[in-house]
Write a structure and sequence with these properties.
The complex is a heterodimer. Chain A has helices spanning 42-49, 71-76, 93-104, 110-119, 133-145, 163-178, 190-196, 214-220, 264-270, 285-297, and strands spanning 4-13, 16-26, 31-35, 57-62, 65-66, 78-81, 151-155, 182-187, 199-204, 207-213, 223-229, 245-250, 254-259, 275-281. By secondary structure, chain A is of the alpha/beta class. Chain A has a 6-stranded mixed beta sheet with strand order 6-7-8-3-9-10, sandwiched between helices. In chain A, strands 2-1-4-5 form a 4-stranded antiparallel beta sheet. In chain A, a hairpin with a 2-residue loop joins strand 1 (4-13) and strand 2. Chain A starts with a strand and ends with a helix. By secondary structure, chain B is mainly alpha-helical. The relative contact order of chain B is 0.15. The model of chain B has no long low-confidence stretch (mean pLDDT 88). Classes of the chains: A alpha/beta, B mainly alpha. At the A-B interface, helix 2 and helix 3 of A face helix 1 and helix 6 of B.
Chain lengths: 298, 284
Amino acid sequence: MDALRVERLVKHYGEVRALRGVDLQVAPGEIFGFLGPNGAGKSTAIRIILDLIRPTSGHVEVMGLDAQRQSVAARRCLGYLPSDPSLPRGMTASEVFDFYSDVREERPDRAYLDSLVERFSLDTTRDLATLSRGNRQKVGLILALMHRPPLVMLDEPTTGLDPLVQEQVDAVLHEVAAEGRTVFFSSHILAEVEALCSRAAIVRDGLIVDVFDLAEQRRLAPRRIEVRFVQPPPGDAFDALPPGVQVVERDTTRATLEAHDGIDGVVKFLARYPVDDLTVRQPTLEELFVDYYREEAQ
Amino acid sequence: MNASLVRRSLVDLRWHIAWYGVGLAIYAALMVLLYPTFEEFLRDVEYPEGFLDFFGGAGANLSTPEGFITTEYFSIAPVIMIIYAVVSGTGMLAGDEGRGTLEILLAQPISRFRLFASRVAALLLGAVLIGLVNTLGWLLSVPFVDVGDTLGLGDLVFATFAALPVVTFFGALAMLLGAIAPSRGTAAGILAALVIVTYLLASFSQTIEALEWTRNVNPYWYSDGARALTEGVVWWHQGLLLGGAAILMALAAVAFAGREIDAGVWQPSALARGWRLTSGGASV
């Protein structure tokens, strides 16, 4: 059973086609990235999954439950953090946690809740109105996590958080996945998705245009090799590059190469010349993403 | 219904309840305390024909305590209670949506019907609490003033709570409009205009014969709030208002079940969508 299954999801607002047939399957234990620029349809899809709005057509299942017909049961499997969480006024974080537990009619694991509060360095005694954007975000995150739901849906979760807390959030989400629960992580910050997610879908104009296996993507992605020679190599030296290696850029003592089939051949080729400096790196998801959109635009 | 939601909604309404209640209590006490000062003077005043009728005291004698309190207090107090119902009724769900707090609430495993019922309970409890605070005004004034034998504390408390059916009716209308209007502001604006129109029509229809027919369709006319002390209430009027309120509440609940949250547009189709979902057995 998928943690989340979305089939041919379409949503029209009058003439506007917000979603044009989205398909998704997210397995239990995954940290799944949901990527796309603003207006691509990410929030619309999330709001349909939560039954806040209804699809024009298509079908959504959360932990095998129909998100519309069994909406309440489906939402019991969900923890949700919106991109800009608005919380009730005149309450402390501690009161907010109690209030939503009462609404859910479900007590959270107190030790887990306390550990989240401690790890996110949250003062639960202050009125929410006096909290910074980042601290309100922490409250929203804990609300989404504290009942240990099988599916955690986070929309831009690290907005406003300092790097130390972001690190803790990443660690907590990895623990969630390690417990076999699922994280659905919507973001437009590609480095964040790259660091955290096992798979990611790219949304564009209301359609899923690609689903990456990020581990596989990292393994298969071409390597960029930047080399600085002690002396300029002979002019025809690069004619002897092994197959699958291309020269991206070159001047007298520097060259940037791209290796599509591993770097062993490149290392052996470079060993023929005195090398002053060498860097090997993978293209970032951002570079892949930008390339993807550029190709699409063309 | 969810007790925690009812409690929280009442906490959110606490200042509304306090200010409407205290304001009405002070107003009520002042009118009672002022009565002896005006009693003799009013006995000799000749009012133009229709003047008292306009203020709801049809057939009332302004020099009698019930006539004075009816004209000076009960011609206005129900309107103030209705304003509470409109402001709070539209604020209950449409206001939450505007503030963005409805999104996290509806992401919890609670059905929209339960959320709706909890909010309605808080709205009505708030009206009862305003009535109780209002009653303090009578308690702190009537025992200290000679209001004769014809007007008792019980009559005033009864007349105060006689406004509840019309308050419930307008509260239900506020919930319904809040469920299909683009925003709370739009819903409240339309209802404020409707309250003014119904109040004026109810008043003018007592003096202008050509407007008498409007009474049949005017919920404010059926409230009897302005006549409760002098003529008593007509029970079928109250039944009609409560029946109408029940129908409007049911429609509002179905429309809320079908509402697209944060869509920012008129949603008359929410009713049909809500009906389709609930009649199809969905646990909305």
